[in-house]
């Protein structure tokens, strides 16, 4: 038994907490526009990053195309070097052949009696050395000398050419290495840009989700507000109907007026004059004419009569007519003036609610307002005036 009760209480508390948390969520209209603004900024940042990325991509393409160009040049250079090396080998072979042939001829000359030549030949450290020494040897033929010089010169030229080619190859390799470094750095920048774009896309997604959530909350808040307003209207309508029903019941049970009014809505209408009492159970709390002011103690003229009644008590039109004023005034509070024609007007003041508007036609006995305490009053009551040609008169002469 106790357990059950405790559980029910807990459930009620939970419901309370849920209701509170629902109503406590503040939905600011400007947080929606802020989020929209943030979304636009993120989109702009993403576009900028995409532009930088495409610029980097075209830089990378340029670097790769430069690398291909350099690679092609390197291949060509290496072909040239290989060709030069072949030429050099050929030249060295020719040079060597010439040297060998010359040595044979020198040997032949020695065998025919020239000893000093052989000495030179075998003491020479290289062909160049031999040539220097042979310069002083008249016996070496002009032919051999010329041929040796020619081949030596050719070999030297090819060697120089090869060296120049190798130097060019080195330069190309340096260029290629620079290009590789550049490619790597552009690739790195591109990867970073990808990360940045991906992060921006995440932020854009999260922001869009937040925006959707805020819009949903705003719609929810608006819906709750509309529901509350509708409930309030329904409650007011029900209260009015209940008051009217109570009014009808009261007047039908105690009807002694004999005014001949048969309509249910007008059944409260009483009195012998041309005007009906503006309230169902008239209870005059202050009469017309000179009286002692309740606060200041001085006498003042009272332009109407006061009917006592609780706030919300219905006020009825004394006769058919047209509403000429339905307004608020700091002294009169909410008040209504109905023009009945022929210079006759009725005034209803200090109302808690007014149900008619200016220009509206009203019928005798129509519920036009409710007793209240708006304006300068000491408590709720209806201050009722009758005007003839713009001048207040004693209402009792017309009721
Ligand atoms: Zn009064």
Automatic annotation (TrEMBL):
Family matches, as InterPro entries: Cell_wall_metabolism_enzyme, Dup_hybrid_motif, M23ase_b-sheet_dom, PcsB_CC
Gene3D superfamilies xref list: 6.10.250.3150, Glucose Permease (Domain IIA)
Protein name stated in the entry: Peptidase M23
Domain of life per record: Bacteria
Signal peptide: 1-24
Ranges of biased composition (kind: Low complexity): 242-265
Residues of the Peptidoglycan hydrolase PcsB coiled-coil domain: 97-161
Keyword flag tRNA processing: no
Swiss-Prot/TrEMBL keywords: Signal
A Pfam family matched in the record: CC_PcsB
Domain M23ase beta-sheet core span(s) in chain numbering: 301-395
MF terms in GO: metalloendopeptidase activity
Biased composition (Basic and acidic residues): 35-53
Originating organism: Sellimonas intestinalis
UniProt region (Disordered), positions on chain: 34-57, 242-270
The keyword DNA-binding appears for this protein: no
